Amino acid sequence: MEFVGTSAQGILKHKNKDERKISELKRKLAETEINLKAQQEKGSMLEKCIKDKDDLIKTLQLSIDLVSQTKEMTIQKLQIQMMDLQSSLDLSRIAIKDNNGGSCAPAHDKVVKERKELNVENGKFRELNNQIVEIEKILKSKEAEIARLEFKIDESKLKIVKLEGAVKAKDEKIVKMEEILSEYNGTEYNGTEYNKDDDEFVFLGFSKVPSIKLVTLPNFEPFASAFEDIPSAGRGWMVIQRRIDGSFDDVINSKLKPGCGDLGGEFWLGLEKLHKMTTNRRMELYIQLVDFDNVSAYARYDHFVIGAAKEDYKLLCLGKYSGNAGDAFSSHINQAFDGFNPFNFGPSKWWGTMNCNLNGIYQKSKVELRTSDGIWWGNWNLGKRISLKSCKMLIRPMPSQV
Question: Once rounded to an integer, what is the mean pLDDT over residues 56-79?
Answer without folding.
Answer: 74
